[in-house]
């Protein structure tokens, strides 16, 4: 019923826009909508339930309410998993919050198909040009825009330079063989090579996705057409199994979550593992969860290429965070969204280090050299594939997560993984 | 004793109506009285019935209906009828097989470890010694804590970072996670079963055991031939509650492991939740609900017929057999 | 310890063995809680480096911070209100229904009773999606009744089972005497049966309170507004919000245990005594 993949997109144009498009932002946008002071309430669900972003969002809402006394914004910060459960029950009863977290892709498409979310294409027309167009891709469904991103980036390896050096690794590996070598060297030096959140499942999915892209090319998931039993996907499973067989993960990784004091991010942040495969938010979470600063020791490198594969080092896998607007939301919601995405507010959010901005010009607030590196890499990317668990319909996305987790735990073979995912995809 | 007590009760269950009927003289008065009785029945029963029908039965029926559809739960009512498709899929679902297996393991563990432990402790606490009231209070205390609170406490206790040495990482290991879960469940629930047994034991007249002792029965023989048989109804109900509890297990697993790693501690309710709330396959999730419901129901009927023989209500509360 | 008459005094050697056994078991029950209490007095660094030892220094801010926030007390208040509301409704409706099932004979009685028993096989978690839709259409979301009513409905089967068994054993003579005195059905129920059944009513009330107090899933789904959150929802939320600081989470968890344990201390007789010896009053 759904076409399975978001199209991989050429990013060249976006890069050009990124460099050029600073000046024209909307500057001050107080008193935008007309004078009709009808009292409205905007119910806003977001998942930034922790600092550093939570107070920033609060501040932005407060400012907006001060400028628009008729608008009350009811903020509801909810933890990620709880948010998904809560949104399900709410949408099941045919309603959606006025403004809420979305990652785009298949989940958003389901909501759009059930006409729970507003088609924003016309409403945001005047200012959407201020955003990097590549960041919009996951939120476009059948040519219509159903969500607006405030964060966009890619997944890659975050590594501890000091630990790499200690293990005698010269520089970040660029091929799978070199990568496996690096893992072996780290093991030999008694360093845990990789931290992984086995309980959360989605971080494991990144490995399989990237391997499939490196082997079959950036558009491998589009071409698959719901059949994941092709040789590229089997090979991806086999390569991943090679890695798993080296036992590169931290002790107890199957029970670890990403964002806890004993989780994936904290393990890397506390220098207890040499690297993790994660998105643009990794440095800020590592610091927050471990309470330690890696500083210049933390580096970023792209997922290595696989020898003989069609994919390139510059094919990117990732995505970001956005907001969708509920069907029955008051008109002011879109206006608030515009305010939320003003250059000023994006700069404030970016300055926390937890956001890679989507509004042109806001990247000036990026101080962290590593994040600039990600931004540079993603701008130079030759294609972008959205996270599979968002790109696919939820059932397929979760099946991918599940199956890859089973592979990593040694409970499923590459063949079984491919078959199971295909079966779920075909049934949709 | 318990059984006779119950039959006694049943025969004593002479009711207002039959009695009034018997004593009624004229047909007219009889009819009026009958009507009054029906009014009473209706007035007393209706509020509970309404609440129950709307908030328990209606959801069951809705879930039953939805289980015949492929439905993502979004937008209007389900339309994509698939017949028994969801149930067929359930039969082939390896995760569901695992759920069943985990249920069996947990039930068996409960029967061989948790309940005997509870029974043993109950018999110990039935002895006279200083401080036994205190111990009874302590053993039962975890029962009043919520599964969420218990779960959070033990997650941190089992955490590789902040946990207690030997237990670190138990929840992260596919080969230990189910046992770790069982340990936490036992920690929380054995006190409840202990209380049931204690009550059952205290209903056994001391004279019976004394008589056995005078006849030269060893303590073991007393236990085997007097205590154990007389605890029958209590044991049966304790087993029953234990099994039903395992079938419906959710909160604790959710807080401790969310069913992982790789489904190794997953239960039916967790699978149901995953499909209903994460995969948006509400039709399939409803089918899992119905499977849980049917398994509970069949178990209850089977158990009642073959094991408990209609003494379910009496034994359930340990009150029926008290007189 | 109210009604224990049974049990012989064992020989001294065996007493020692009994003490060893119950003490060991008692420790396994108590130690995790002590770990939690002490953990709350540590900071996160201490907790990971010194999980088992005493705090050094003792950090009071975790506990004092929680006691000072209105959030925690609000959750205690919400949980209390909802637990009491649930207990009140389930006891009232359950007693009426149990009375009918226990002391009237009519066609379809057993079938109706069975209908209620069916509810016992259906955990609320399974019904949560349809239940949510129903509550929504009744306009009961973000309303304490949205949790109280379903909880009461799901607690009805157990309540009816217990009370029915209890009402049954009240001797016929009592009822006959009452009827002879010209007591109406309602008067008999209200002024004779209920007072006699006080221990059983207390038991089911306390059971309903404990179940409600511990309920997690329903309030999580029904209450969007944090102002209505109950303790378990609050604990879960606190855990994710302060996921960096397990010591603080432990402090919150321990604080959340206090009301339940305090209630247990007060209502222990009803909870245990009711389960064990309620019927002796009959």
Rounded to the nearest angstrom, the distance between the terminal CA atoms of chain A is 6 Å
Tell me the β content of chain B.
under 5%
What is the ordering of alpha helices and beta strands of chain A? HEHEHEHHEEEEHHHHHHEHEEHHHEHHH
Q: How large a portion of the residues of chain A is in β-strands, by DSSP E?
A: 5-15%
Largest sheet entry of chain A: 6 strands, mixed
Q: How many angstroms does the end-to-end distance of chain B come to?
A: 10 Å
- Class computed from helices, strands and strand pairing of chain B: mainly alpha
Runs of chain B with pLDDT <50, length 5+?
1-24, 310-323
Instruction: Sketch the major β-sheet of chain B.
Output: 2 strands, antiparallel
SSE pattern of chain B:
HHHEEHHHHHHHHHHHH
Q: Into which percent range does the helicity of residues of chain B fall?
A: over 70%
Helix content of chain A: 40-55%
Largest interface: B-C, 106 and 116 residues
Record field, number of beta strands of chain B: 2
Please compute the radius of gyration of chain B using only Cα atoms: 25 Å
**Count of DSSP-assigned helices of chain A:** 18
Assembly state of the chains shown: heterotrimer
Mean residue pLDDT of chain A = 85
By DSSP, the count of extended strands of chain A is 11
Mean pLDDT of chain B equals 81
Could you give the topology of this structure?
The complex is a heterotrimer of chains A (428), B (323) and C (282).
Chain A: H1 12-20, E1 40-46, H2 53-67, E2 71-77, H3 80-92, E3 99-102, H4 105-113, H5 133-136, E4 140-141, E5 144-145, E6 147-154, E7 156-160, H6 161-166, H7 176-188, H8 202-216, H9 220-224, H10 231-245, H11 264-269, E8 275-278, H12 282-290, E9 298-301, E10 315-325, H13 332-340, H14 343-351, H15 369-379, E11 383-386, H16 388-391, H17 394-408, H18 414-427
Parallel strand pairs in A: 1-2, 1-3, 10-11
Antiparallel strand pairs in A: 3-10, 4-5, 6-10, 7-8, 7-9
Chain B: H1 2-12, H2 16-23, H3 27-66, E1 69-70, E2 80-81, H4 85-92, H5 94-125, H6 132-144, H7 147-158, H8 177-202, H9 206-214, H10 219-230, H11 232-247, H12 251-256, H13 268-278, H14 282-308, H15 312-317
Antiparallel strand pairs in B: 1-2
Chain C: H1 12-39, H2 44-49, H3 61-68, H4 70-103, H5 109-119, H6 124-137, H7 144-169, H8 172-180, H9 185-196, H10 198-214, H11 217-222, H12 231-241, H13 246-277
């Amino acid at each position: 019923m759904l076409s399975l993949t978001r199209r991989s997109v050429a990013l060249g144009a976006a890069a050009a826009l990124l460099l050029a498009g600073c000046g024209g932002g909307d500057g001050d946008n107080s008193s935008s909508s007309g004078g009709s002071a009808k009292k409205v309430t905007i119910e806003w669900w977001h998942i930034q339930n922790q600092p550093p972003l939570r107070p920033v969002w609060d501040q932005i809402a407060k400012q907006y309410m001060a400028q628009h006394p008729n608008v009350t914004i009811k903020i509801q910060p909810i933890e990620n998993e709880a948010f998904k459960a809560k949104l399900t029950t709410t949408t099941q009863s045919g309603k959606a919050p006025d403004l809420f977290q979305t990652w785009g892709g298949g989940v958003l498409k389901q909501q759009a198909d059930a006409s729970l979310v507003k088609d924003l294409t016309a409403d945001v027309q005047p200012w959407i040009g201020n955003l990097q167009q590549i960041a919009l891709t996951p939120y476009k469904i059948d040519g219509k825009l159903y969500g607006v991103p405030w964060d966009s980036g890619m997944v890659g390896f975050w590594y501890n330079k000091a630990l790499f050096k200690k293990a005698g690794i010269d520089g970040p590996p660029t091929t799978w063989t070199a990568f496996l070598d690096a893992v072996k060297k780290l093991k030999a030096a008694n360093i845990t090579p990789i931290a992984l959140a086995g309980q959360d499942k989605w971080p494991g999915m990144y490995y399989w996705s990237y391997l499939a892209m490196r082997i079959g090319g950036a558009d491998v998931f589009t071409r698959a057409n719901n059949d994941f039993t092709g040789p590229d996907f089997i090979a991806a499973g086999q390569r991943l199994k090679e890695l798993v067989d080296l036992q590169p993960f931290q002790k107890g990784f199957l029970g670890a979550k990403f964002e806890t004091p004993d989780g994936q991010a904290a393990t890397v942040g506390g220098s207890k593992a040499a690297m993790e495969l994660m998105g643009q938010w990794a440095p800020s979470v590592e610091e927050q969860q471990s309470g330690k600063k890696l500083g210049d020791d933390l580096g970023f490198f792209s997922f290595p290429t696989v020898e003989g594969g069609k994919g390139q080092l510059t094919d990117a896998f990732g995505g970001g965070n956005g907001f969708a607007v509920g069907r029955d939301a008051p008109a002011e919601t879109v206006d608030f969204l515009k305010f939320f995405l003003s250059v000023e507010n994006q700069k404030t959010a970016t300055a926390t280090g937890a956001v890679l901005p989507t509004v042109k010009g806001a990247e000036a607030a990026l101080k962290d050299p590593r994040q600039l590196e990600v931004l540079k890499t993603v701008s130079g990317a030759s294609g972008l594939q959205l996270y599979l668990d968002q790109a696919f319909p939820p059932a397929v996305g979760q099946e991918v997560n599940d199956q890859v987790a089973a592979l990593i735990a040694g409970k499923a073979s590459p063949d079984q993984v491919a078959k199971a995912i295909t079966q779920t995809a075909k049934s949709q | 004793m318990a059984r006779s007590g119950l039959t006694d009760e049943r025969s004593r269950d002479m009711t207002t109506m039959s009695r009034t009927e018997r004593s009624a003289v004229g047909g007219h008065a009889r009819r009026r009285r009958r009507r009054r009785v029906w009014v009473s029945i209706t007035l007393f029963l209706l509020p509970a019935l309404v609440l129950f029908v709307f908030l328990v039965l209606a959801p069951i029926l809705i879930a039953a209906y939805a289980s015949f559809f492929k439905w993502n739960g979004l937008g209007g009512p389900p339309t994509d009828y698939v017949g028994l498709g969801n149930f067929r899929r359930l039969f082939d679902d390896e995760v569901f097989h695992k759920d069943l297996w985990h249920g069996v393991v947990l039930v068996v563990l409960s029967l061989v470890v948790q309940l005997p432990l509870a029974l043993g402790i109950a018999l110990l606490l039935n002895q006279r010694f200083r401080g036994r009231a205190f111990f009874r209070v302590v053993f039962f205390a975890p029962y009043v804590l919520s599964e969420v609170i218990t779960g959070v406490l033990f997650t941190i206790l089992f955490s590789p970072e902040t946990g207690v040495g030997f237990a670190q990482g138990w929840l992260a290991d596919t080969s230990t996670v189910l046992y770790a879960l069982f340990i936490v469940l036992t920690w929380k629930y054995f006190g409840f079963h202990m209380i049931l047994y204690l009550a059952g034991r205290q209903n056994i007249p001391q004279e019976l055991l004394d008589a056995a002792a005078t006849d030269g029965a060893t303590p073991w023989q007393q236990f085997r031939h007097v205590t154990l048989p007389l605890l029958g109804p209590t044991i049966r109900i304790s087993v029953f509650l234990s099994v039903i509890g395992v079938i419906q297990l959710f909160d604790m697993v959710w807080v401790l492991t969310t069913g992982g790693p790789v489904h190794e501690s997953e239960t039916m309710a967790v699978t149901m939740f995953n499909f209903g709330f994460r995969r948006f396959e509400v039709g399939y999730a409803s089918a899992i609900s119905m499977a849980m419901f049917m398994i509970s129901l069949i178990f209850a009927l089977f158990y009642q017929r073959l094991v408990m023989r209609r003494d379910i209500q009496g034994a359930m509360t340990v009150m029926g057999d008290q007189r | 310890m109210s009604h224990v008459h049974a049990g012989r005094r064992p020989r001294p050697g065996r007493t020692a063995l009994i003490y060893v056994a119950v003490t060991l078991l008692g420790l396994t029950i108590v130690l995790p809680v002590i770990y939690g209490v002490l953990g709350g007095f540590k900071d996160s660094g201490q907790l990971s480096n010194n999980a088992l030892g005493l705090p050094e220094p003792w950090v009071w801010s975790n506990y004092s911070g929680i006691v000072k926030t209105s959030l925690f007390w609000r959750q205690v208040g919400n949980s209390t209100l909802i637990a009491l509301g649930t207990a009140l409704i389930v006891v009232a409706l359950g007693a009426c229904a149990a009375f009918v099932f226990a002391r009237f004979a009519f066609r379809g009685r057993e079938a109706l009773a069975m209908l209620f028993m069916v509810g016992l096989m259906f955990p609320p978690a399974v019904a949560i999606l349809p239940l949510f839709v129903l509550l929504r259409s009744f306009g009961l979301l973000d309303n304490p009744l949205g949790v109280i009513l379903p909880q009461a409905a799901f607690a009805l089967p157990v309540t009816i089972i217990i009370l029915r068994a209890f009402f049954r054993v009240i001797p016929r003579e009592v009822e006959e005497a009452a009827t002879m005195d010209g007591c109406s059905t309602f008067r008999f129920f209200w002024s004779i049966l209920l007072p006699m059944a006080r221990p059983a009513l207390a038991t089911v009330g306390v059971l309903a309170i404990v179940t409600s107090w511990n309920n997690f899933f329903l309030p999580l789904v029904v209450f969007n507004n944090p102002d209505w959150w109950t303790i378990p929802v609050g604990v879960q939320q606190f855990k994710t919000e302060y996921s960096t600081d397990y010591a603080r989470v432990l402090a919150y968890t321990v604080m959340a245990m206090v009301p339940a344990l305090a209630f247990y201390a007060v209502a222990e007789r009803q909870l245990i005594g009711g389960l064990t010896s309620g019927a002796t009053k009959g």
